[in-house]
Amino acid sequence: VMDRVAVIRSMHHQARLHDSASIHALTGRPLEGPDRELFAPQPQHFPSFGSTVAYARRRGEVRVPFASLPFPFRNVHEVPCQGAGFLGSDFDPLTIDVDPNQLRYEVSQLRPADGLSAQRRGERQRLLDLMGDHPSSPHPLQRHYERAYELLASTAIHQALDITREPTEVRERYGFGPPPATVGEGGGGGNGAELGYAGQMRGQNLLLARRLVEAGVPFVTVYDYKQQGQNWDAHFNCANQHKTFLLPRADRALAALIEDLEARGLLESTLIVAMGEFGRTPQINGNAGRDHWPDCYSVLLAGGGVQGGAIYGSSDALGAYPATDPVTPADLAATVFWRFGLDPSSEMHDRLGRPYRLADGQVIERLFT
Q: Are 332 and 271 in contact, with CB atoms under 8 Å apart?
């Protein structure tokens, strides 16, 4: 489906470790201070792309402006780039988990407590309304309560999460089945249960993202494999790991998503961004792998008005550094916000009222029709 895909070939930044690189990639801003991994939770400062979009469109009627699945990479508070940061928890994503045993998706916040029937929940809501019925001084949490009850009653979101509603042939098209027997030779690590989950649910994650878009969720972040030895952090035996495990599933699921959105008339209004936090070294290391390399890497875009078959930027002869049209995460952030109809130079404010631009980069307009 490369005729519907554009590739940025000159993405770069300076963060060489996963956590600092993830912060730069998912917020468009670098981590302040030295490049480092974060071995203890710390508060998030700048918001993620999805949280920024949710904030900028906060006066809309969308019940779920931002969702992420099927897990936070590590803990959502340990790598401070997945939530809303200084915008406040109102703009954190609705976190969707996967049950690896039942192979189904669920949102713990939307699951009623055991023994709490719809009738009792309604009675609680009416009591809460009576206690807070003071229009001149509403309860400070009133809007949160209202949103919680709206979500609990939202059939659209609950139905979107029930991926078994999809025909079997659609699920199989995205990729749904056990991993090949050769998995594990390339990356090592992990056990059969983890490999089984990864093999069965990776394509389903993108299918669920499509269902959420159809249900009216404007921004969805899908995180990829997190198990070391089964993910893109291929420091050893990367050729076999990519050939037998990573690339076939990525190719199948992404192609299915692009074709599925196109068939449903949603591709032009849905921008797909496929990226990592950095690239890999141009040279193969002594373990037949490739190491961290933020100096030049690629990002794939599809839909959202992007010019299919286009490329932007280039690397030098070794694929080591940008040769033309270098792009930064800030530029990508500005481009994403622009496609949402937002001016990247407009302001957002933290809880003390201090202003920040939505993004500090430049929009990559040439990639779009």
A: no
Q: Which amino acid is at 108?
A: S
Highest mean pLDDT range out of 114-123, 139-148, 224-233, 360-369?
A: 360-369
In this prediction, residue 154 carries a pLDDT of: 72
pLDDT for 306 beyond 60: yes
pLDDT at 186: 34
Share above pLDDT 90 across residues of the chain, in percent, rounded to a whole number:
64
Check if the beta carbon of residue 151 is closer than 8 Å to that of residue 96: no
Residues 6+ apart with CB under 8 A from 225: 198, 202, 231, 232, 246
Calculate mean pLDDT across residues 70-88.
82
Residue 312 has pLDDT above 90, yes or no: yes
Least confident window among 118-127, 166-175, 274-283? 118-127
Tokens (6 digits) for 271:
């921008």
Q: What is the 3-state secondary structure (H, E, C) of the chain?
A: CHHHEEEEEEECCCCCCHHHHHHHHHHCCCCCCCCCCCCCCCCCCCCCHHHHHHHHCCCCCCCCCEEEECCCCCCCCCCCCCCCHHHCHHHCCEECEEECCCCEEECHHHCCCCCCCHHHHHHHHHHHHHHCCCCCCCCCCHHHHHHHHHHHCCHHHHHHHCHHHCCHHHHHHHCCCCCCCCCCCCCCCCCHHHHHHHHHHHHHHHHHHHHHHHCCCCEEEECCCCCCCCCCCCCCCHHHHHHHHHHHHHHHHHHHHHHHHHHCCCCCCCEEEECCCCEECCCCCCCCCCCEECCCEEEEEEECCECCCCEECEECCCCCCEEECCECHHHHHHHHHHHCCCCCCCEEECCCCCEEECCCCCCCHHHEC
